[in-house]
Amino acid sequence: MISHSSNDKVEKQKEYFSYHVIGKLINKLDGLVRVGGLVLEIDSTKIPKDIKNDDYIEFDVSRIDLW
Fold first, then answer.
1. In the predicted structure, residue 22 carries a pLDDT above the cut 80
2. Looking at the chain, which runs of residues are DSSP E strands?
């Protein structure tokens, strides 16, 4: 969903590995979101059609895998 905040954030939730994330969508087609110095890849098919590149979005994830 579109975020009303333009402040990047990764906030740990109470669930085991879950996080609430706010970041800038830098490539909708590839599902790339910049959060501070990190670029996260999300499922681009789940991004609503009214959201465009350079919008700040927020979402919850059950875990973040780094590789």
1. yes
2. 9-12, 19-27, 32-35, 38-41, 56-61
Q: What is the pLDDT of residue 65?
A: 85
Q: Where are the domains of the chain?
A: 9-61
Separation between Cα atoms, residue 29 and residue 19, nearest integer Å: 23
* Both tokens assigned to 41: 């890849």
Judged by DSSP in three states, 24 sits in strand
Q: What CA–CA distance (Å, rounded) separates 23 from 34? A: 5
pLDDT at position 30 is 97
The rounded distance, in Å, linking the Cα atoms of 11 and 51 is 22
